[in-house]
Amino acid sequence: MQIATAVVQALNDDSVVDAIQLIRAGWWIYLKANADRERLVQRGLTVAGKFVCHSEFTTRTSRSVKITVKDLPLHYVDNAQVLETFSQICTILSPVQYGTLWYNGQSTSICNGDRFFYVPEAVVGKIPMSVKVGEYKARVFRPAALMQCVTCDQMGHKALDSQCLALAPQDIMDMVETFRGGKNPLSNLHNCPEGCGFNDGQHEFHSSEQHYQFQWLRHYGKVEESYTVLESESGVEAMCLAHEILLEMETHSDWWEQAMSVMTDLNRKKYQACEHAHEVLLDSNVVLVKATSNVFWGSGLNPERTLTTLSDYWPGKNHMGKLLVCLHDKFMQIEDDSDQMDGCKRKASSPLQAEGQKQNKQSEPNGSP
Question: What's 329's domain CATH number?
């Protein structure tokens, strides 16, 4: 009778109830109209002073899923705001409720600030992992089996879990070397030693980033402004200065058509001039990846995510890494050709050949030139 009383109290009308049935451990409530069913779902049931979780069933195979919302200040965001926000995203099957703290495996009466509600399983994929409620950004959690991986787009696991298609095996990780930041000689932000000779024939540069930004400004006719980049003390400063100067331009699409050739040429000059950077590049016998958020020059991921993610799933194109690998191969070819030439010279001056030359000289007649 408690269930029947709760249903009537929620709907304020017993005539809309068709039947109430107990099947195993669950109560099935049958209503005569869809409008009454929606009202019951929105209002919920309170039995013996406690809210009872319930779901809307249209078929025996339908299921409801618990959605938990975190990071919303308790006194600044009420449940009505949460319900209004998520109702615009998907169907809500229950009132929004507060989560409670657990102690020794049991739920307490202390609110933990979390909010939760139930939705149909079919709409879980529509709910993003973060939602802005009022002025606050909330994290959204759902059962792991219904989560969509943000890396491989498959359902049923988090990003880079053991079953993720994008997870790189260890042997692939061992073949990748990431670089970022001014401390790494492979980075375009790295400052070469002063006086190493990194220049374009007229101007000295401390980093390939400074050279690149200088060229970028010159491309758009900002000749006088380009000298402010030459006065910068770091690649980051040069980049900020150039972007500030070109801020009013809506597009730089024509620059990207030649950006790769410009970056390749100035990096070739850098690694020819800077001995330490040249050695580091030649010692890198793996795939080089610029592990930054830049999706053109880098992988679009941080170093850790870059290493553990297969390259097909990187959001970035890693043009800088590919460029350096090409330069590495060219410099290695030059080294190999040089070694072969040295080998020929050493062979020409070998003791065996020298002895032959001595015998030939002894056999020559006196007075020969």
Answer: 1.10.357.40
Reported as a single tens digit per residue, the pLDDT across 46-62 is 777 766 655 444 433 34
Structure tokens at 352: 């065996």
pLDDT of 320-359, one tens digit each? 999 999 999 999 998 877 766 666 555 554 444 444 444 4
Q: Both 192 and 321 in a single domain?
A: yes
Q: Where are the alpha helices (DSSP H) in 231-252?
A: 235-245
3-state secondary structure of 18: strand
Do 122 and 193 fall into the same domain? no
Please tell me whether residues 142 and 278 are part of one structural domain.
no
Query: Is residue 165 situated within a structural domain?
Result: no
**CA separation for the pair 214, 232 (Å, rounded):** 11
Among residues 261, 259, 205, 279, which one has the least CA distance to residue 237? 205
Task: Taking each helix axis as running N to C, give the angle between helix 223-230 and helix 208-219, from 0 to 180 degrees, rounded to the nearest 10.
Answer: 170
Q: Look at residue 341 and tell me if it is in a domain.
A: no
